[in-house]
Amino acid sequence: MSLAPDDTWLPRYHVTADRNWLNDPNGPIHVDGRYHLFFQANPAAPEWGPPHWGHVSSTDLVTWTRHPVALAPGPDPDAPDRDGCWSGCARIVDGRPTIYYTGVVGDGDERVESICRAVGSADLKEWTKDPDNPLVAGPPAPLGSGYHRDPFLWRDDDGWHLLLGSGTIGPDRHGTVLVYHSPDARSWTYGGVFFEAPRHLDGTDLGEHWECPQLLRFDDGDVLVLSAQDPHAPHPLMHAVYFVGKAAEGRFDGQLGGRLDGGDAWYAPAATVDAGGRTLIWGWIQEHLPPETQRRLPRVGALSLPRVATLTDGALTTVPAPELDRLRTGPPLAGPVTVHGHSHLLPAHDHGQLEVTARISGEAGTARWELGPGLAVAVDLDRHRFTLTTPHGHHHAGIGHRPLTEAELRIFLDGTICEVHLADQASLTARCYPPSAGRGPITALAGPAVEAAACTVWRLAGALP
Ligand code: FRU
Which top class of enzyme applies to this chain (predicted)? Predict the structure, then answer.
Protein backbone atom coordinates (compact mmCIF):
# COMPACT_ATOMS: atom_id res chain seq x y z
CA MET A 1 0.00 0.00 0.00
CA SER A 2 1.45 3.36 -0.91
CA LEU A 3 0.87 5.97 1.74
CA ALA A 4 0.80 9.33 0.01
CA PRO A 5 -1.11 11.78 2.15
CA ASP A 6 -3.24 14.33 0.37
CA ASP A 7 -6.06 16.68 1.38
CA THR A 8 -8.57 13.87 1.68
CA TRP A 9 -6.66 12.60 4.74
CA LEU A 10 -7.29 15.72 6.80
CA PRO A 11 -10.05 15.85 9.38
CA ARG A 12 -12.45 18.78 8.90
CA TYR A 13 -14.82 18.59 11.85
CA HIS A 14 -12.50 17.16 14.49
CA VAL A 15 -10.31 19.78 16.19
CA THR A 16 -6.70 19.78 14.97
CA ALA A 17 -3.88 22.27 15.48
CA ASP A 18 -3.76 24.92 12.76
CA ARG A 19 -0.46 23.35 11.73
CA ASN A 20 1.86 20.60 12.85
CA TRP A 21 1.46 18.55 16.00
CA LEU A 22 -1.33 18.03 18.57
CA ASN A 23 -1.60 15.49 21.38
CA ASP A 24 -3.63 15.49 24.62
CA PRO A 25 -6.74 17.60 25.16
CA ASN A 26 -5.99 19.87 28.13
CA GLY A 27 -8.05 21.92 30.54
CA PRO A 28 -11.56 21.85 29.04
CA ILE A 29 -13.64 24.47 30.84
CA HIS A 30 -17.03 26.13 30.26
CA VAL A 31 -16.91 29.84 31.14
CA ASP A 32 -19.58 32.48 30.41
CA GLY A 33 -21.32 30.23 27.89
CA ARG A 34 -18.13 29.39 25.99
CA TYR A 35 -16.31 26.05 25.95
CA HIS A 36 -12.54 26.51 26.02
CA LEU A 37 -10.43 23.59 25.01
CA PHE A 38 -6.64 23.53 25.15
CA PHE A 39 -4.32 20.90 23.77
CA GLN A 40 -0.69 19.82 23.72
CA ALA A 41 0.82 21.38 20.60
CA ASN A 42 4.17 21.54 18.88
CA PRO A 43 3.73 24.49 16.51
CA ALA A 44 7.23 23.96 15.07
CA ALA A 45 7.02 20.48 13.55
CA PRO A 46 4.64 17.62 12.65
CA GLU A 47 6.02 15.49 15.49
CA TRP A 48 5.96 15.54 19.28
CA GLY A 49 8.26 18.32 20.53
CA PRO A 50 8.47 20.92 23.30
CA PRO A 51 4.78 21.01 24.27
CA HIS A 52 2.85 24.28 24.20
CA TRP A 53 -0.84 24.71 25.07
CA GLY A 54 -2.91 25.37 21.91
CA HIS A 55 -6.35 26.92 22.42
CA VAL A 56 -9.74 26.79 20.68
CA SER A 57 -13.19 27.80 21.92
CA SER A 58 -16.81 27.27 20.97
CA THR A 59 -20.25 28.29 22.18
CA ASP A 60 -21.95 25.21 20.73
CA LEU A 61 -19.38 22.34 20.72
CA VAL A 62 -19.73 22.29 16.92
CA THR A 63 -17.99 25.35 15.47
CA TRP A 64 -14.61 26.24 16.96
CA THR A 65 -12.56 29.45 16.92
CA ARG A 66 -8.78 29.34 17.09
CA HIS A 67 -6.89 31.45 19.62
CA PRO A 68 -3.19 32.20 20.06
CA VAL A 69 -1.07 29.67 21.92
CA ALA A 70 -1.94 29.95 25.64
CA LEU A 71 1.31 28.64 27.14
CA ALA A 72 4.80 28.27 25.69
CA PRO A 73 7.87 26.72 27.37
CA GLY A 74 10.38 29.02 29.13
CA PRO A 75 11.65 31.31 27.76
CA ASP A 76 13.97 31.87 30.74
CA PRO A 77 16.65 29.12 30.69
CA ASP A 78 16.07 28.62 34.45
CA ALA A 79 12.29 28.34 34.09
CA PRO A 80 10.71 25.19 35.56
CA ASP A 81 8.89 24.74 32.23
CA ARG A 82 11.94 25.43 30.06
CA ASP A 83 11.48 22.24 28.04
CA GLY A 84 7.72 21.95 27.96
CA CYS A 85 4.30 22.87 29.30
CA TRP A 86 2.87 19.38 29.61
CA SER A 87 -0.71 18.40 30.37
CA GLY A 88 -2.94 19.68 33.15
CA CYS A 89 -6.32 21.28 33.82
CA ALA A 90 -8.07 24.66 33.97
CA ARG A 91 -10.15 25.84 36.93
CA ILE A 92 -11.69 29.03 38.26
CA VAL A 93 -9.69 29.88 41.38
CA ASP A 94 -10.60 32.97 43.41
CA GLY A 95 -12.77 34.04 40.49
CA ARG A 96 -9.94 33.85 37.94
CA PRO A 97 -9.32 31.29 35.19
CA THR A 98 -6.23 29.35 36.22
CA ILE A 99 -4.28 26.68 34.37
CA TYR A 100 -2.39 24.04 36.34
CA TYR A 101 0.15 22.29 34.17
CA THR A 102 3.29 20.20 34.27
CA GLY A 103 6.50 22.17 33.90
CA VAL A 104 9.28 20.07 32.39
CA VAL A 105 13.03 20.51 32.48
CA GLY A 106 15.45 17.97 31.00
CA ASP A 107 14.88 14.69 29.25
CA GLY A 108 14.90 10.93 29.87
CA ASP A 109 16.02 9.86 33.36
CA GLU A 110 17.09 13.44 34.09
CA ARG A 111 13.65 14.89 33.41
CA VAL A 112 12.00 16.86 36.25
CA GLU A 113 8.22 17.19 36.17
CA SER A 114 6.96 19.96 38.46
CA ILE A 115 3.57 21.57 39.03
CA CYS A 116 3.15 25.09 37.70
CA ARG A 117 0.25 27.40 37.14
CA ALA A 118 -0.74 30.42 35.03
CA VAL A 119 -3.56 32.90 35.64
CA GLY A 120 -5.74 33.95 32.72
CA SER A 121 -7.48 37.11 31.57
CA ALA A 122 -11.28 37.08 31.83
CA ASP A 123 -11.55 35.96 28.18
CA LEU A 124 -8.93 33.20 28.76
CA LYS A 125 -6.77 34.47 25.91
CA GLU A 126 -3.82 35.92 27.87
CA TRP A 127 -1.99 33.84 30.47
CA THR A 128 0.53 34.99 33.07
CA LYS A 129 2.71 32.37 34.71
CA ASP A 130 2.84 32.41 38.51
CA PRO A 131 6.13 34.01 39.63
CA ASP A 132 6.32 31.36 42.36
CA ASN A 133 6.43 28.46 39.89
CA PRO A 134 7.01 25.62 40.45
CA LEU A 135 4.35 25.25 43.13
CA VAL A 136 5.46 21.63 43.62
CA ALA A 137 9.07 21.12 42.59
CA GLY A 138 9.12 17.42 41.75
CA PRO A 139 8.25 13.96 43.05
CA PRO A 140 8.07 13.67 46.84
CA ALA A 141 11.27 12.25 48.32
CA PRO A 142 9.99 8.78 49.31
CA LEU A 143 8.86 8.08 45.78
CA GLY A 144 11.83 7.97 43.49
CA SER A 145 9.81 7.59 40.29
CA GLY A 146 10.14 10.48 37.89
CA TYR A 147 6.53 10.38 36.75
CA HIS A 148 4.85 13.30 38.48
CA ARG A 149 2.55 14.96 36.06
CA ASP A 150 -0.79 16.06 34.63
CA PRO A 151 -2.41 17.89 37.58
CA PHE A 152 -6.17 17.48 38.02
CA LEU A 153 -7.80 19.70 40.69
CA TRP A 154 -11.08 19.81 42.51
CA ARG A 155 -12.44 21.59 45.51
CA ASP A 156 -14.31 20.01 48.44
CA ASP A 157 -15.59 21.46 51.72
CA ASP A 158 -12.14 20.85 53.20
CA GLY A 159 -10.16 22.66 50.51
CA TRP A 160 -8.42 21.96 47.21
CA HIS A 161 -7.05 18.61 46.09
CA LEU A 162 -4.70 17.83 43.21
CA LEU A 163 -4.09 14.46 41.57
CA LEU A 164 -1.00 13.54 39.57
CA GLY A 165 -0.23 10.55 37.37
CA SER A 166 2.75 8.50 38.51
CA GLY A 167 4.11 4.97 38.82
CA THR A 168 6.31 2.82 41.01
CA ILE A 169 9.85 1.76 40.13
CA GLY A 170 11.53 -1.60 40.63
CA PRO A 171 10.57 -5.05 39.40
CA ASP A 172 6.84 -4.67 40.05
CA ARG A 173 6.18 -1.52 38.07
CA HIS A 174 2.62 -0.30 38.15
CA GLY A 175 0.60 2.89 37.95
CA THR A 176 -0.17 5.17 40.88
CA VAL A 177 -2.09 8.39 41.40
CA LEU A 178 -0.62 10.83 43.94
CA VAL A 179 -2.61 13.43 45.85
CA TYR A 180 -1.73 16.86 47.20
CA HIS A 181 -3.91 19.12 49.36
CA SER A 182 -4.09 22.90 49.66
CA PRO A 183 -6.17 25.55 51.41
CA ASP A 184 -5.65 28.10 48.60
CA ALA A 185 -4.77 26.09 45.44
CA ARG A 186 -1.28 27.58 45.62
CA SER A 187 0.70 25.98 48.47
CA TRP A 188 0.46 22.21 48.34
CA THR A 189 1.14 19.42 50.85
CA TYR A 190 1.82 15.87 49.68
CA GLY A 191 -0.95 13.52 50.82
CA GLY A 192 0.39 10.14 49.63
CA VAL A 193 -0.89 7.59 47.15
CA PHE A 194 -4.52 8.30 46.20
CA PHE A 195 -4.91 5.07 44.24
CA GLU A 196 -2.83 2.22 42.81
CA ALA A 197 -3.53 -1.12 41.19
CA PRO A 198 -1.43 -4.05 39.99
CA ARG A 199 -0.21 -3.97 36.42
CA HIS A 200 -2.55 -6.77 35.32
CA LEU A 201 -6.10 -6.80 36.61
CA ASP A 202 -9.12 -8.75 35.36
CA GLY A 203 -7.37 -9.46 32.05
CA THR A 204 -6.54 -5.78 31.45
CA ASP A 205 -2.97 -4.52 31.16
CA LEU A 206 -2.84 -1.32 33.21
CA GLY A 207 0.64 -0.30 32.07
CA GLU A 208 3.73 0.63 34.04
CA HIS A 209 2.61 4.16 34.87
CA TRP A 210 -0.49 6.33 34.63
CA GLU A 211 -1.00 9.70 33.01
CA CYS A 212 -3.75 12.32 33.03
CA PRO A 213 -5.87 11.18 36.03
CA GLN A 214 -9.43 12.57 35.92
CA LEU A 215 -11.88 12.26 38.78
CA LEU A 216 -15.49 12.34 37.56
CA ARG A 217 -18.18 12.68 40.20
CA PHE A 218 -21.69 11.38 39.67
CA ASP A 219 -24.66 10.98 42.01
CA ASP A 220 -24.11 7.21 42.05
CA GLY A 221 -20.38 7.20 42.61
CA ASP A 222 -17.00 8.49 41.55
CA VAL A 223 -15.06 7.45 38.49
CA LEU A 224 -11.29 7.63 38.22
CA VAL A 225 -10.15 7.77 34.59
CA LEU A 226 -6.51 6.90 33.93
CA SER A 227 -4.36 6.79 30.84
CA ALA A 228 -2.27 3.63 31.16
CA GLN A 229 1.07 3.56 29.42
CA ASP A 230 4.11 1.39 28.91
CA PRO A 231 6.48 3.07 26.49
CA HIS A 232 8.91 0.12 26.79
CA ALA A 233 6.51 -2.63 25.71
CA PRO A 234 7.16 -4.18 22.26
CA HIS A 235 3.88 -2.66 21.08
CA PRO A 236 3.72 0.50 23.17
CA LEU A 237 0.67 0.31 25.39
CA MET A 238 -1.57 3.38 25.54
CA HIS A 239 -5.17 3.14 26.56
CA ALA A 240 -7.65 4.90 28.83
CA VAL A 241 -9.30 2.86 31.58
CA TYR A 242 -11.65 3.70 34.42
CA PHE A 243 -12.37 2.58 37.95
CA VAL A 244 -15.74 3.08 39.67
CA GLY A 245 -15.85 3.68 43.42
CA LYS A 246 -15.58 6.40 46.00
CA ALA A 247 -13.08 9.15 46.70
CA ALA A 248 -12.95 10.07 50.39
CA GLU A 249 -10.36 11.30 52.84
CA GLY A 250 -7.56 11.54 50.35
CA ARG A 251 -7.97 8.01 48.94
CA PHE A 252 -9.91 6.34 46.15
CA ASP A 253 -11.29 2.86 46.45
CA GLY A 254 -12.85 1.26 43.39
CA GLN A 255 -13.26 -1.57 40.92
CA LEU A 256 -11.96 -1.69 37.37
CA GLY A 257 -14.77 -0.79 34.97
CA GLY A 258 -12.84 -1.33 31.73
CA ARG A 259 -11.61 0.73 28.82
CA LEU A 260 -13.36 3.90 27.74
CA ASP A 261 -12.84 3.26 24.04
CA GLY A 262 -11.96 -0.05 22.45
CA GLY A 263 -10.00 1.43 19.51
CA ASP A 264 -6.26 2.09 19.40
CA ALA A 265 -6.44 5.82 18.71
CA TRP A 266 -8.18 7.39 21.72
CA TYR A 267 -5.95 8.34 24.62
CA ALA A 268 -5.26 10.87 27.40
CA PRO A 269 -8.89 11.95 27.84
CA ALA A 270 -9.72 15.18 29.68
CA ALA A 271 -13.12 15.92 31.19
CA THR A 272 -15.09 18.85 32.52
CA VAL A 273 -18.57 19.52 33.90
CA ASP A 274 -20.39 22.21 31.93
CA ALA A 275 -22.85 24.83 33.20
CA GLY A 276 -25.70 22.40 32.48
CA GLY A 277 -24.13 19.77 34.75
CA ARG A 278 -23.08 17.45 31.92
CA THR A 279 -19.76 15.65 32.15
CA LEU A 280 -18.01 16.13 28.80
CA ILE A 281 -14.92 14.23 27.79
CA TRP A 282 -12.47 14.51 24.88
CA GLY A 283 -9.61 12.21 23.90
CA TRP A 284 -6.55 12.53 21.69
CA ILE A 285 -6.92 10.72 18.37
CA GLN A 286 -3.36 9.86 17.51
CA GLU A 287 -1.91 8.87 14.18
CA HIS A 288 -0.42 5.46 13.49
CA LEU A 289 1.91 6.29 10.63
CA PRO A 290 5.56 5.70 9.85
CA PRO A 291 7.47 8.89 10.80
CA GLU A 292 8.38 9.68 7.19
CA THR A 293 4.71 9.63 6.16
CA GLN A 294 3.63 11.59 9.22
CA ARG A 295 6.11 14.33 8.39
CA ARG A 296 4.28 14.90 5.11
CA LEU A 297 1.02 15.75 6.88
CA PRO A 298 0.35 19.46 7.50
CA ARG A 299 -1.62 18.66 10.68
CA VAL A 300 -0.92 15.64 12.86
CA GLY A 301 -3.28 14.38 15.59
CA ALA A 302 -6.84 15.45 16.43
CA LEU A 303 -9.17 15.77 19.39
CA SER A 304 -12.11 13.40 19.48
CA LEU A 305 -15.67 14.66 19.32
CA PRO A 306 -17.01 15.74 22.70
CA ARG A 307 -18.69 12.82 24.48
CA VAL A 308 -21.22 13.08 27.29
CA ALA A 309 -20.28 10.66 30.07
CA THR A 310 -22.75 9.09 32.49
CA LEU A 311 -22.52 6.42 35.15
CA THR A 312 -25.32 3.90 34.70
CA ASP A 313 -25.59 0.62 36.61
CA GLY A 314 -21.94 0.91 37.63
CA ALA A 315 -20.65 1.39 34.07
CA LEU A 316 -19.31 4.58 32.53
CA THR A 317 -20.84 5.13 29.12
CA THR A 318 -20.25 7.94 26.69
CA VAL A 319 -22.31 9.19 23.77
CA PRO A 320 -21.50 11.94 21.27
CA ALA A 321 -22.79 15.33 22.47
CA PRO A 322 -26.26 15.88 20.97
CA GLU A 323 -25.13 19.25 19.57
CA LEU A 324 -23.13 17.31 16.95
CA ASP A 325 -26.34 16.71 14.98
CA ARG A 326 -25.77 20.25 13.76
CA LEU A 327 -22.74 19.13 11.77
CA ARG A 328 -25.18 17.54 9.29
CA THR A 329 -25.55 19.53 6.10
CA GLY A 330 -28.72 19.37 4.08
CA PRO A 331 -30.92 16.34 3.57
CA PRO A 332 -29.39 12.86 4.00
CA LEU A 333 -27.25 11.47 1.18
CA ALA A 334 -29.09 8.16 1.69
CA GLY A 335 -31.96 6.83 3.78
CA PRO A 336 -33.57 6.64 6.16
CA VAL A 337 -34.14 2.97 5.32
CA THR A 338 -34.74 -0.16 7.32
CA VAL A 339 -32.06 -2.63 6.31
CA HIS A 340 -33.44 -5.93 5.02
CA GLY A 341 -30.76 -8.48 4.23
CA HIS A 342 -28.35 -6.50 2.11
CA SER A 343 -29.01 -2.80 1.41
CA HIS A 344 -26.92 -0.57 -0.83
CA LEU A 345 -26.88 2.80 0.85
CA LEU A 346 -24.48 4.87 -1.25
CA PRO A 347 -22.58 4.14 -4.46
CA ALA A 348 -18.90 5.05 -4.82
CA HIS A 349 -18.54 8.70 -3.78
CA ASP A 350 -15.97 11.30 -2.80
CA HIS A 351 -17.35 12.48 0.53
CA GLY A 352 -14.66 12.45 3.21
CA GLN A 353 -16.89 13.79 6.01
CA LEU A 354 -19.79 11.46 6.70
CA GLU A 355 -21.97 10.16 9.46
CA VAL A 356 -23.89 6.90 9.22
CA THR A 357 -26.67 6.40 11.77
CA ALA A 358 -29.08 3.56 12.55
CA ARG A 359 -31.21 2.24 15.38
CA ILE A 360 -30.41 -1.36 16.23
CA SER A 361 -32.77 -3.79 17.94
CA GLY A 362 -32.65 -7.53 18.32
CA GLU A 363 -31.54 -10.59 20.22
CA ALA A 364 -29.35 -12.53 17.81
CA GLY A 365 -27.34 -12.22 14.62
CA THR A 366 -25.20 -9.45 13.18
CA ALA A 367 -25.74 -6.08 11.55
CA ARG A 368 -22.79 -4.90 9.50
CA TRP A 369 -21.82 -1.79 7.55
CA GLU A 370 -19.23 -1.90 4.77
CA LEU A 371 -17.90 1.63 4.42
CA GLY A 372 -15.09 1.38 1.87
CA PRO A 373 -12.04 -0.78 1.14
CA GLY A 374 -11.19 -2.69 4.33
CA LEU A 375 -13.44 -0.55 6.55
CA ALA A 376 -16.43 -2.10 8.34
CA VAL A 377 -18.47 -1.72 11.53
CA ALA A 378 -20.46 -4.61 13.03
CA VAL A 379 -22.83 -5.19 15.92
CA ASP A 380 -22.66 -8.92 16.70
CA LEU A 381 -25.42 -9.88 19.12
CA ASP A 382 -24.36 -13.56 19.28
CA ARG A 383 -20.82 -12.77 20.42
CA HIS A 384 -21.87 -9.60 22.29
CA ARG A 385 -19.35 -7.60 20.31
CA PHE A 386 -19.15 -4.21 18.68
CA THR A 387 -16.39 -4.19 16.05
CA LEU A 388 -14.52 -1.68 13.91
CA THR A 389 -12.31 -3.20 11.24
CA THR A 390 -9.83 -1.06 9.32
CA PRO A 391 -7.22 -2.17 6.76
CA HIS A 392 -4.69 -2.23 9.64
CA GLY A 393 -6.58 -3.70 12.55
CA HIS A 394 -9.54 -5.09 14.29
CA HIS A 395 -10.96 -3.18 17.25
CA HIS A 396 -13.74 -4.41 19.45
CA ALA A 397 -15.63 -3.84 22.68
CA GLY A 398 -18.11 -5.99 24.58
CA ILE A 399 -21.78 -5.09 24.54
CA GLY A 400 -24.35 -5.97 27.20
CA HIS A 401 -25.80 -9.47 27.41
CA ARG A 402 -29.33 -8.25 26.94
CA PRO A 403 -31.45 -7.71 23.89
CA LEU A 404 -30.65 -4.39 22.29
CA THR A 405 -33.58 -2.03 22.00
CA GLU A 406 -33.28 0.87 19.63
CA ALA A 407 -29.59 1.34 20.44
CA GLU A 408 -28.36 4.26 18.39
CA LEU A 409 -25.35 3.55 16.18
CA ARG A 410 -23.33 6.54 15.00
CA ILE A 411 -20.36 6.13 12.66
CA PHE A 412 -18.34 9.34 12.20
CA LEU A 413 -15.85 9.40 9.33
CA ASP A 414 -13.58 12.41 8.92
CA GLY A 415 -10.59 12.00 6.62
CA THR A 416 -8.61 9.15 8.20
CA ILE A 417 -10.58 9.27 11.50
CA CYS A 418 -13.22 6.62 12.26
CA GLU A 419 -15.06 7.30 15.50
CA VAL A 420 -17.97 4.92 16.13
CA HIS A 421 -20.44 4.79 18.99
CA LEU A 422 -23.13 2.36 20.03
CA ALA A 423 -25.17 4.37 22.52
CA ASP A 424 -24.83 3.29 26.15
CA GLN A 425 -22.64 0.37 25.09
CA ALA A 426 -19.24 1.21 23.66
CA SER A 427 -17.09 3.51 21.52
CA LEU A 428 -14.30 2.59 19.11
CA THR A 429 -11.87 5.07 17.60
CA ALA A 430 -9.21 4.20 15.03
CA ARG A 431 -7.48 5.54 11.94
CA CYS A 432 -7.98 4.30 8.42
CA TYR A 433 -5.14 5.06 5.96
CA PRO A 434 -5.89 6.00 3.24
CA PRO A 435 -9.43 7.12 4.05
CA SER A 436 -11.72 4.40 2.72
CA ALA A 437 -14.91 6.30 3.31
CA GLY A 438 -14.24 8.72 0.51
CA ARG A 439 -14.59 5.89 -1.97
CA GLY A 440 -17.49 3.75 -0.89
CA PRO A 441 -19.76 2.16 -1.82
CA ILE A 442 -21.54 1.97 1.53
CA THR A 443 -23.70 -1.05 2.15
CA ALA A 444 -25.45 -2.48 5.18
CA LEU A 445 -26.31 -6.08 6.01
CA ALA A 446 -28.65 -7.26 8.75
CA GLY A 447 -29.45 -10.83 9.79
CA PRO A 448 -33.09 -11.89 10.20
CA ALA A 449 -33.13 -11.53 14.00
CA VAL A 450 -31.65 -8.05 14.12
CA GLU A 451 -33.27 -4.88 12.89
CA ALA A 452 -31.32 -1.86 11.68
CA ALA A 453 -33.94 0.86 11.34
CA ALA A 454 -33.68 4.43 10.10
CA CYS A 455 -30.30 3.77 8.55
CA THR A 456 -29.14 7.12 7.17
CA VAL A 457 -26.00 8.57 5.61
CA TRP A 458 -25.30 12.25 6.32
CA ARG A 459 -22.75 14.59 4.87
CA LEU A 460 -21.04 16.60 7.61
CA ALA A 461 -19.66 20.11 7.54
CA GLY A 462 -16.24 21.31 8.63
CA ALA A 463 -16.08 22.87 12.10
CA LEU A 464 -12.84 24.84 12.10
CA PRO A 465 -11.43 27.52 9.81
C1 FRU B 1 0.00 11.87 27.58
C2 FRU B 1 1.26 12.64 27.95
C3 FRU B 1 1.10 13.34 29.31
C4 FRU B 1 2.07 14.47 29.19
C5 FRU B 1 1.91 14.87 27.75
C6 FRU B 1 3.16 15.43 27.11
O7 FRU B 1 -0.09 11.63 26.21
O8 FRU B 1 2.39 11.79 27.96
O9 FRU B 1 1.34 12.49 30.41
O10 FRU B 1 1.78 15.50 30.08
O11 FRU B 1 1.50 13.70 27.05
O12 FRU B 1 2.88 15.93 25.83
Answer: hydrolase
* CA 307 – CA 281 distance, rounded (Å): 5
Closest CA to 403 of 420, 426, 382: 382
Residue to mutate (ligand 1; options 24, 26, 89, 99; most atoms within 8 A of CB): 24
Query: Under a CB-based contact definition with an 8 Å cutoff, are residues 329 and 459 in contact?
Result: yes
The DSSP letter of residue 304 is: P
Tell me the per-residue pLDDT of 156-165, one tens digit each, with 9 for 90 and over. Answer: 999 999 999 9
Helices (H) and strands (E) in the chain, counts: 1, 36
**Domains along the chain with CATH numbers:** 14-322 (2.115.10.20), 328-460 (2.60.120.560)
The Å distance, Cα 310 to ligand 1 centre, comes to 25
What's the gap in Å between 211 CA and the centre of ligand 1? 7
150: Cβ below 6 Å to ligand 1?
Answer: yes
What phi-psi label fits residue 365: left (phi over 0), alpha (psi between -120 and 50 degrees) or beta?
Answer: left
Phi, psi of 356 (to 5 degrees): -115, 130
Prediction ipTM score: 0.99
Contact at 8 Å (CB) between 376 and 392? no
Contact, 254 vs 272, CB < 8 A? Answer: no
For the Cβ of 17 lying below 6 angstroms from any atom of ligand 1, the answer is no
Sequence letter at residue 179: V
Which 8-state DSSP code applies to residue 435? -
Least Cα distance to 345 among 203, 187, 182, 454 occurs for 454
CB atoms within 10 A of CB 1: 8
Structure letter (DSSP) for residue 136: B
Residue 2 pLDDT > 60, yes or no? no
Looking at ligand 1, which atom is closest to the CA of residue 267? 7
**Ligand 1 in contact with 268 (CB < 6 A)?**
yes
Beta-sheet strand order (sheet of 96-105):
84-93, 96-105, 112-120, 127-129
Ordered alpha helix ranges (H), 93-230: none
Check: CB of residue 228 under 8 Å from CB of residue 205. Answer: yes
DSSP state of 291: H
How distant is the alpha carbon of residue 276 from its chain centre?
21
The residue nearest atom 1 of ligand 1, judged by CA position, is 268
Asked if 234 contacts 202 with a C-beta cutoff of 8 angstroms, the reply is: no
195 has a pLDDT exceeding 90:
yes
Amino acid at 356: V
- pLDDT over 70 percentage in the chain: 98
- CA torsion sign, 378 to 384 to 386 to 387? negative
